[in-house]
Design brief:
Layout (H helix, E strand, L loop, with lengths): L8 E5 L3 H11 L4 E5 L2 H10 L4 E5 L5 H4 L9 E5 L2 H8 L8 E5 L4 H25 L9 H56 L3 H5 L2 H7 L2 E12 L3 E9 L2 E2 L2 H7 L1 E2 L5 H8 L3 E3 L10 H6 L7 E8 L2 E11 L11 H21 L13 H17 L6 E9 L2 H8 L1 H18 L5 E6 L2 E9 L2 H17 L15 E8 L10 H18 L17 E3 L4 H20 L11 E6 L2 E10 L3 E6 L8 E8 L2 E16 L4 E9 L3 H14 L8
Parallel strand pairs: 1-2, 1-3, 3-4, 4-5, 16-17
Antiparallel strand pairs: 6-7, 6-12, 7-8, 7-9, 10-11, 11-12, 13-15, 13-16, 14-15, 18-19, 18-21, 19-20, 20-23, 21-22, 22-23
Helix pairs in contact: 6-12, 14-15, 15-16
Length: 671
Amino acid sequence: MREEEKKIRLLILHHHPSVRSRLKQILGNELTVVEASWVSRALQLSRQSSFDLAIAEASQGDFSSLAGIIKPQIPLFLISSSQEELIRALKTWPENWPVEIHLWPLEAEAQEIFRRRIRLALDSLRPKVASSDQAESQVRTPEIKLREISREILELKTFFQKKVLQELENRLAWEIRCLLAEKEKQKIESILKKIYAADDVSSLIDCVQDIKEIIKAGSLTFYILEQSEALGKYLKPLVLADAFLSHPDFARYSVPLGADDFAAFVARNGEELNIASPEGDPRFSSRYREQMRIPLKNLLAVPIMHDREVIGVIEAYNKQAKESALKGFTLEDQRLLRTISEHISMAMTKLNLIQYDPLTGLLRPEPFFEKILQKIQTQSKRRIDLGHCAMVMGDVDWFKNYNDLHGHEAGNRLLRELAAVLKASIREEDFLCRYGGEEFLFFLVGVKSLEEALLLTERIRRNVEQHYFPYQENQPRKNLTMSFGVTLLTQDKISPSLTREDLKKLVAEADLALAEAKGKRAAAGIEELPLKNRICAYWPEDEQRQKWSLINFQERKQIAEKRKYQRHFISTPLLIFDESGIKVTKTINLSLGGAKICLSSDLPLGQPLNLTIILEDRACQLQGNVVYKEKAADSPPLFHAGIAFSFPSPGIQKSLEDYLQAMASKSTPIN
């Protein structure tokens, strides 16, 4: 390069020292090179002396960032490994500004092109440099200029003759990269649409497969941060290496926050990890070897943050792209996963997964206790008398049997439907949470006595018992039920000084009563099924507790004695013929007097119906009318109806009576 080019000041703006060093090697040592890592430093340097030429990374090369640093019409070269980032930065500059974009790192042929593009830019700068420093510049003769121009033209001609094919290939590769970048952009937009359209945790984690594909990961794990009394804070994997987990698996695969583990490290420190090779890293815990189907070669993990607090972690394993499989995930992958995690955080906040259980939508235990304490403190400040309160623990009877028969996904659907029934069974002022698994906690506010708390709990128990759940006929007593334990928080113990530990003591008391209700405290060796489906109250003295249990069962026995016909939980097909056609349903419970059924459409009260009931291998025709109805759910619409039977002949009635007697040993009478 010529003498006046030494006067030309070249700005290299890039955050990475190795890139700045490589650019200096390509351009040689003749230019006056000024280096800056960030725009703020470049601005300081520009105040000392102006720049004649600039090379900048695209992420810092927006017009708004550099317009005050380089003079108008100063040639600018933007470099980046991302085609999308180059195009984005280029669009911010005026069309008449000389801006070129180049993919980095440069291949061997591309380096020569880049060097010559710089030389052409320097040629355009020579007149300006000469006029700005007449004292040092030499006026060059036309002959010398002509020889130099001729030489450069000859060099360019020779170069393009040799490299024209490579240039065309580069252009084609450029266009392919543009198309791929556009497809990638569309994929990202599709992922974000799914994230924000999610209305529950299941639809949110459905995005896992799309996230895995966009960063070309072999598999992916999605954790949320939980807290329990037994484990403290821990990471619960909703998806583990692409496998969608159900509730029984959570405890087995949970990661304590204090563990020496990649995911736990990210959750503790809120830092990202991009590990090219985990071997030898002390955080490479045994669970990665034991729980993953494919050995872990590299890992990328980013935290999910909300208000500067970690609420979850996303881990990606084993980069799939051939060119980077050994090197691991790229910085672009890391940036992309970080962006997606930010959107997932906003979606989780929208779904309120921080306070609410993702499966049932009920409160988590910690927010449940917090809301109770807030309620007591607020009422105390306002000098409002709460009266007595009651803590109730409920547990689904034989839930493991249900899961084993129908699978964990059916169990999850059952818990979601059950949560809706429980929520509809309590008063507006009461609190409800999912305590864990199939256990639920209720806090009943303002009860006058333990008897009133038992009556309110009995309403909850009865609503569950009378609701039809799919496959309930396969349960040990042909119905899905719950058992409950109740303990009283007396008025004299309610004060602003009440603590979370006091509430947990109440939970322990309710748990003891629940064990009594479920028959867990009965003597060992009894072959009969435990009674379950009942309510027991905690009382410090054994005699009193037994007394409360007896009172509860006596009331239910008296209710049962008032019924004319014994009802049984029997599910059998029932066909209803009316003006709209034939409706096919199943009975929820059945007696000689009638049946309770479940339909997706309403039936008018008092409407006479022609019916056909299937009794094992026999179809019996009879009449009936609707004596009561209720709406069980809004979406999808679901209606319960009670139908009273009338028999056209004594033979049909006798057939139903014989059928009920035959089924009596297999079904459960309703008390």
